[in-house]
Specification:
Layout (H helix, E strand, L loop, with lengths): L1 E3 L16 H20 L2 H7 L12 H12 L2 H12 L5 H20 L8 H25 L1 H7 L5 E6 L2 E6 L8 E4 L8 E6 L2 E4 L1 H4 L5 E3 L4 E2 L4 E2 L4 E7 L5 H14 L3 H30 L4 H14 L3 H19 L3 E3 L2 H7 L4 E5 H5 L5 E7 L5 H12 L5 H12 L7 E7 L3 E6 L2 E6 L1 H6 L17 E7 L2 E9 L4 H12 L3 E5 L4 H11 L3 E4 L6 H10 L4 E5 L5 H6 L2 E5 L4 H6 L2 E3 L5 H36 L11 H20 L10
Parallel strand pairs: 12-19, 12-21, 19-20, 21-22, 22-23
Antiparallel strand pairs: 1-20, 2-3, 2-4, 4-10, 5-8, 5-10, 6-7, 6-9, 11-23, 13-18, 14-15, 15-16, 16-17, 17-18
Helix pairs in contact: 1-3, 1-6, 3-5, 3-6, 4-5, 5-6, 5-11, 6-12, 6-24, 9-12, 10-11, 10-12, 10-23, 11-23, 11-24, 12-23, 12-24, 13-23, 15-16, 18-23, 23-24
């Protein structure tokens, strides 16, 4: 392993989350209609506005009867929620609301049947109506935030055209099986993941990958369930159905991220719990203090209920979950999949980004640029032996060698006893002779150094893969990768943020330095074996860096796991995706910059909501208890309910502003 400084050429869930917005809407409107006559027949309201409503037999019982209906229909939501909180030994928002409703209703009923005092029916009815209105708005915001999941689920068509024995049949998508051959007509959505066997078309994958431009697909290319076929007719071999599709995986990741808790969420939950405890304490203190001062009982009860209503930690409980619901949905529809909310939160603190080279900073489409034969050997013979040994290899270098040999019309013989070893190369028996193909590590293992291969002359920073026949070095094949244009911009933007950008590769020093200089990297590590990549990450961490690792292959998995934030790019392999906390669907290094923007915006919005929700309670509690009564200010119970619901709506609106975040801006 070697490290170098490149020589530059130029120096969140609520207990009511299962309710639908429609449920709260219906309950609000009926409660609102019932509240109007309660207000009209309330003696306090009549005295304030100096009017007398029409009287009829039993009209004096209207506030009691209608308030009972309001509690039974509108208030039951909160009472059930409180019961669930108490059973779970986690008293919270529903507990406070239910206490307020129960105390106000119980006291008013007692007064109705002879207990001295004044009823609180109009305050109670108004409280329930306002609380239902606030919950309706909140649930609408939550459902809207989670709408992207429904949009993803709606991407799959209901039916597919399956081809069997040259006959075609229309079947339900659920009836498709692996390896089925299906026809996808122009304009249709892909019913399953698969590989194109016949046809060519432009595929729109924007709702899945975030890539706005349609992608040209030809035989051998993969297609994703839910993407839209362009103008060509395609025959596709099914490779993923149901829960095995990329779309299903995306939805699972989004759901998992929305369900997980980050440190900020844990802080909000703890604050909400203590707020409930404080509210109950303040309520008891309010009751005791006003009673001792000689205040009338109706006034005392009203102050206690006002405290319970005002202190409801509704906004505090909504502050973080709503932000998470919105941000994960927005990210998913832009090709950024958040598997771990902690990873998203941690990303804003990264000061070092380590990129794998091949397939991440470069296109990963290596092609042969030269063949260097040792003395006494021919270029075509070297290619023939190397291509035969690499024929069964899944490595992109091996495939490029085979492809180049085929283009050169070379007859590639069959190989036997094929073996591969990660980071070193392949070996096989070709024409009864042992052939090995590998990079610098294989050369070292055979007791040579790159300078010993005097027949090799390369000036372009290409990768060299040495060919051995019966233990003798017979030549080298030079391949070249292309640096992504987006990589240059990504490195530039990251460095402007003060982030150190480092490249990690198993390629030779020559290749690594060429790419590092071209991109203007701060450092690079070359000739790193897969099992050693995690050690490099740990070394950087010991230097004091918070490290984000960006990779796309199986050999990147240990490094992804060791980093502070693991980022799998280009969908990657299953192992890389499972190890990473964040998955970037596209092969676009600029998405790393967008991820950092997303992380910072998310954290900023969480802190804003948390500060607003907590600050509201700090101000409102003393007012609700009647602390300013000696100065002529008394906060009415209904106003406290309006302010509490208003704070919740403010938090929801502030979270919704995240939808204006443009992730494409770099």
């Amino acid at each position: 392993m070697s490290e170098h400084q490149p020589q530059h050429a130029h120096e969140d869930g609520h207990d009511h989350m299962d309710h639908s917005p429609e449920s709260f809407r219906y309950r609000f409107w009926l409660t609102f209609l019932l509240t109007i006559p309660v207000l009209i027949y309330s003696e306090s309201i009549q005295a304030w506005f100096n009017f007398q409503p029409p009287e009829f037999w039993g009209s004096q019982w209207l506030p009691f009867l209608l308030s009972t209906l309001i509690v039974a229909y509108g208030g039951i939501v909160f009472l059930r929620g409180a019961r669930a909180e108490v059973r779970a030994k986690k008293p919270g928002m529903m507990t406070l609301i239910s206490l307020a409703i129960t105390v106000a209703y119980g006291y008013s009923v007692a007064v109705t049947f002879g207990f001295p005092g004044e009823t609180l029916y109009w305050e109670l009815a108004t409280l329930v109506a306002i609380m239902l209105l606030g919950h309706w708005f909140e649930m609408s915001a939550v459902v809207k935030a989670q709408g992207s999941l429904k949009a993803l689920a709606a991407l799959l068509p209901d039916k597919a055209l399956r081809i069997k024995a040259q006959a075609m049949e229309e079947v339900l998508v659920s009836e498709l099986a692996m390896e089925d051959l299906i026809l996808v007509r122009p304009g249709d959505r892909m019913p399953a993941d698969g590989v194109i066997e016949k046809g060519q078309s432009m595929i729109n994958e924007s709702l899945i990958t975030g890539e706005s431009a349609p992608v040209n697909k030809a035989p051998g290319d993969s297609v994703i369930a839910g993407s839209i076929n362009g103008g060509g007719s395609l025959r596709v071999r099914v490779k993923g159905i149901g829960e095995e599709t990329a779309l299903a995986g995306i939805m699972r990741m989004v759901q998992a991220a929305q369900a997980s808790k980050s440190p900020v969420q844990v802080l909000a939950d703890r604050a909400a719990f203590w707020l409930v405890a404080v509210a109950l304490g303040v309520a008891v203190l309010t009751f005791t203090a006003w009673l001792i001062s000689g205040a009338p009982l109706p006034f005392v009860i009203e102050r206690v209920v006002t405290v319970l209503v005002a202190a409801c930690p509704h906004a505090l409980g909504l502050a973080i979950p709503l932000v998470v619901a919105i941000i994960t949905s927005i990210a998913a529809t832009n090709g950024l999949l958040i598997k771990d909310r902690l990873a998203l939160e941690e990303a804003r603190r990264l000061d070092c980004i380590v990129f794998d080279k091949t397939g991440t900073l470069t296109h990963g489409d290596q092609h042969v640029v030269a063949v260097h034969p040792a003395h006494g050997f021919e270029k075509r013979e070297i290619l023939r032996l190397a291509a035969a040994a690499e024929m069964d290899s899944e490595h992109f270098i091996g495939k490029s060698i085979v492809s180049f040999a085929q283009k050169m019309k070379i007859d590639i013989p069959a190989a036997e006893q094929f073996e591969t070893e990660s980071g070193r190369g392949v070996q096989a028996q070709v024409d009864g002779r042992a052939v090995q193909v590998g990079g610098p590590h294989l050369l070292t293992e055979m007791g040579l150094e790159p300078e010993d291969a005097t027949f090799v002359s390369t000036q372009d920073g290409g990768g060299l893969y040495y060919v051995w026949l019966e233990g003798k070095l017979i030549g080298a094949i030079e391949t070249k990768d292309r640096v992504r244009d987006a990589s240059r911009k990504a490195v530039e933007l990251l460095k402007k943020r003060g982030i150190e950008v480092i490249m990690l590769t198993g390629d030779s020093e020559n290749v690594a330095q060429q790419v590092a200089v071209e991109l203007g990297l701060d450092r690079y590590f070359s000739e790193v074996l897969p099992q050693d990549k995690a050690e490099v990450i740990e070394r950087l961490q010991t230097e004091g860096y918070r490290v984000g690792m960006v990779g796309d292959g199986i050999n990147d998995a240990p490094a992804l796991a060791a980093s502070d934030v693991g980022i799998a790019i280009g969908a990657g392999t299953d192992v890389a995706v499972e190890t990473a906390g964040i998955v970037l669907i596209k092969n676009d290094p600029l998405d790393v910059v967008r991820l950092l923007n997303l992380s910072r915006a998310t954290y900023r919005k969480m802190v804003q909501n948390l500060a607003w929700a907590a600050g509201y309670n700090v101000v409102i509690l003393p007012l609700a208890a009647g602390l300013l009564t000696p100065f002529g200010f008394l906060l009415p119970m209904a106003v406290a309910a309006i302010l509490m619901s208003g704070s919740t709506i403010m938090v929801a609106v502030n979270a919704q502003l995240l939808r204006r975040l443009d992730l494409t801006q770099t």
